[in-house]
Amino acid sequence: MPEKSATRRPRVGLFVTCLVDLMRPSVGFAAVKLLEDAGCIVDVPSQTCCGQPAFNSGDRANARAIAEKTIAAFERFDYVVAPSGSCAGQIRKHYPELFQGDPNLAPRAAKLADKTYELVSFLVDVMGVTGVEATFSGDVTYHDSCSGLRELGVKSQPRMLLSSVEGLKLVEMKENEVCCGFGGTFAVKYGDISDSIVSKKTENVSDSGAHTLLAGDLGCLMNMAGKLQREGKTVEVRHVAEVLAGMTDTPPIGAPAEAAE
Amino acid sequence: MTAHPTSPRFKDNARKALDDAQLQKALGNVRQNFIERRAAVAAKLPEFEALRDSARDIKNHTLENLDLYLERYEDAVTKAGGQVHWARTAAEAREAIVGICKRVGAKTVTKGKSMISEEIALNDAIEAAGMQAVETDLGEYIIQPRHEAPSHIIAPAVHLNATQVESDFRKHHTHLDPNRDLSQPTQLLTEARTILREKFLAADVGITGANFLIAETGTSIIVTNEGNGDLTQTLPKIHIVIASIEKVVPTLEDASQILRVLARSATGQEMSVYTTFSTGPRRPGDVDGPEEYHVVLLDNGRSAMLGTEFQEMLRCIRCGACMNHCPVYHAVGGHAYGWVYPGPMGAVLTPTLIGVDKGGHLPNASTFCGRCESVCPVRIPLPKLMRHWREREFERHLTPATVRSGLGFWAFFAKRPALYRLATGLAMRGLARLGKAKGRFTSLPFASGWTDHRDFPAPQGKTFQQQWKARRNGRSA
Among candidates A130, A148, A122, A116, which has minimal Cα distance to A214? Predict the structure, then answer.
C-alpha cells in the first residue's frame, strides 16, 4: 500500500461523465471507491457533459460554452478524474485547442487539461496503485477504447490492475485496439457502417471465449453490449471500474435485474 | 468516371458496399495484410518514429516556402532541358497534356500509376481526343476496362478477386485462345504483361505521376513495384510527368529521408522494388530516354489550402496507411467515398477539391478513432482536419437539420446544470421503469438509428448526481 500519511491527500473532482451519470451510476460509485481506496478525497461538483458531442459536430460555440462551465466547476481540484478515456481526452487534449488564442480561457483550459486523467491510468500513473483488492471469477477480455488508448496512452494500466483481481483471467481478443464503431453520434448518423464495425468486434469478443467484456468507456460498452445482446450472445459487459472496485452485484450492462446473482 | 462524384450519395454507396459479399471478403485482406506488414517493418527500425518527425518537418518547411521551391524546381527542370507547364485547374492540366500528345501526333499513350491523373480524369480527355490511353500498372490495367476509379490509392484493384479479373481478361482479350488456362494469378499476370509489352513499344507518349519533385535538381521520382513506370517513361519519345505542386521537396536528401517512411507505411516494404529518378530528356550520349521531358504542375485548389487550417493535409505523401488502418474504409471500401481519394486522407482532401457541399459526408463518416493519425508517416492530424470540415459545415448550415436541432436541444440542457439534472432525472427514471423487466430496449422511437442494429440498455434509475447528493446529505445529517 502506498504511504498516505506522508503527503496531503489529493482532492479529486470526479467528472462522472453524462453517460455514467444518466445510464449507469454504479460506475461512478465504483470510481469513487477506487479513488478513495487510493487515498484521494473525492467530490462531485454539479456537472453535465464535457461538450464533446458539440465539439465533434463542428458546433464550436456550444462546445466552448459547455467547456467553460466544466472549467469553472473543476478548476479548484488538485485533479480531475473521469471513468472514460473519451471525456478525459476531450478535456485534456481538446479544451486547450478549443480556447486557443483566448487570453482569459486558454491558460485556465491548459491548467485543467494538465490535471485531468482517465480513471485507471490516474490510479496507476499518478497514485502509484499497483493492485486492487477485488475478486471476480471467470475469463474476461478487455477492449482498448480509442481515445483512452491513442490520446492518453491507456493500455498497460487496466491490464496491470486486472491482473491483481483474484479469480480473474484476462484473455486478449484479436484486434483489441480496433474501434468498436461507436464514435458518439456516428453510431446513429452512420448506423449501417457502425453496425458493420461493431459486428466485427463482437465476433472477436466471442472468439476470445471470454465470459465478460470490459472496457473503460461506457459509450463503447453500450454499443458492444447492445450488439452482443441483439446477436443473442451471452457475454456479459461491464465497465472495468466495476470489476476493479469489486462492485459487480449490479446486473451487467443491458441485463435485467433478475439475471444478477 | 471521376468527373461526377457520387460522394453526396455516400450513405447509399456504403449500404451497397456493405451488402456486397465479394467486396467484404476483399476488404478483409486490407484489414489484415497491410496492417501486419507495416507493424512488422516499423518495429524493425528503431528510428522509425524519429523519421516520421523528420518527414513531417521537411514537408512543413517546404510548404512554408512553397513558392520559392517551386520556382527553383522549374529553373532546374528547364536547365536539364525539360519544360514545366503550370496548371491552375484540372482543365488546364488536361489541355496541356492533350496538347502535347496532339502536337506529336500520338496514337498510343502509356501511363504509369498516378492519382493526379484520376483527379483530372485524364484518360477520358485522351480518349476524347482520339488517342488510346493504356494504364500499365497492373491494378490500373485491370480496372481501366471496367471504367472504375481505383478503390485504394496504392492498390487500385483491391476490391476485386482473381475470378473477376479472369472473366474480364477473357472478355477483353478476345484475340487470345478462349480455352487458355487462367486459373493461377501468375497466369493472369503473364497475360497482362505480354499485352502491355506491345503497348510499351508502340507508345508515342508516356505519362507518369511523381512521388517527389526535387527542387535542387529538377528530378521527378516515382516508386513502383512492377517496373511499368520505367518502361512508360523511358521508351516513348515524349515523357510527361503529371504532379501536384505539394510534391516538391528541397533536396535529394530530403526525398531519401521521406522514402524511408513511404514504403514502410504503404506496403510494409523497406523500399519499393523500383525507385526511379528522371531528370530532363535524353542527353547527347545517353543510350535511352525520351526526346522531350514535360512536367505538368497542377494546383487545383491546393494553393488555397496554404495558410488555412487544412495546410497540414498538403504534407500527405499518398502512402495509403490511413485507409489501411481505417475501420470505416474496412467496412465500405474506397468506391463508397464516391470520388478519387478514399479513406481518411480522402475525407479531408475531397471536400477541398469538389466542395464541402458535395463531399460533406466524408469527414462526418468517421468515428474519430485516431488510428489513421497514429500511423500517418508525416503525422497529419486527420481527425482534427475532419473536425474542421464539420465546423465549416456547421457554420454554413450544411449540417443536417435533424442533427442540428438534436444537438441544440441537448446543448440547451448541457449549458444549464440545474435544468439538466431535473430533466435527465425525470427522463432516466421513466426509461428505467420502462426497461426494468428486460434490462434493455430492442426498439426506441427516438433512437431508431441505434436500435435498428443493437439493443439499448435501460438506465439503472436514479442518476449518479441524484444519488450522490442523497448520499452526501445522508452523511452530513
Answer: A148
Q: Which of residues 6-45 of B touch A (CB under 8 A)?
A: 11, 14-15, 18
Distance CA B261, CA B378 (A): 9
Using 50, 70 and 90 to split pLDDT, how confident is the model at A258?
low
What is the rounded CA–CA span in Å between residue B200 and residue B135? Answer: 10
One-letter amino acid identity for B407? L
Contact B403 A189 (CB under 8 A): yes
Q: How many CB atoms lie within 10 A of CB B379?
A: 19
Q: Are strands A236-239 and A135-142 parallel, antiparallel or unpaired?
A: unpaired
Domain boundaries, chain A: 11-125, 130-250
What secondary structure letter does DSSP report for B454? S
Report domain extents, chain B. 7-304, 419-476
Helix, strand or coil, per DSSP, at residue B111: strand
Q: Where would I find the beta strands (DSSP E) of B274-406?
A: 274-278, 292-298
The span from the CA of B208 to the CA of B228, in Å, is 10
Count other Cβ atoms within 10 Å, centred on residue B241: 28
SS3 A70: helix
CATH number of A130-250: 3.40.50.11810
pLDDT value of residue A259 = 45
Assess contact for A117 and A80: CB atoms under 8 A: yes
Residue of A35, A41, A48 to mutate, interface with B, max B Cβ within 10 Å = A48
Q: Can you give the pTM of this predicted structure?
A: 0.95
A193 at the B interface (CB within 8 A)?
yes
pLDDT tens for B237-262 read 999 999 999 999 999 999 999 999 99
Quote the cell numbers at residue A85: 478515456
Which strands, in side-by-side order, build the sheet including A79-82? A41-43, A11-14, A79-82, A116-118
Which residues on B lie below 8 Å from A51 (Cβ)? 414
CATH code of the domain occupying B7-304: 3.40.50.10420
Name every residue whose Cβ is closer than 8 Å to that of residue A195 and which is 6 or more positions away in sequence: A181, A227, B452, B453, B454
State pLDDT tens for residues B135-170.
999 999 999 999 999 999 999 999 999 999 999 999
Q: How many CA atoms lie within 13 A of B393 on its CB side?
A: 30
Q: Does B409 touch chain A (CB under 8 A)?
A: no
End-to-end CA distance of chain B: 74
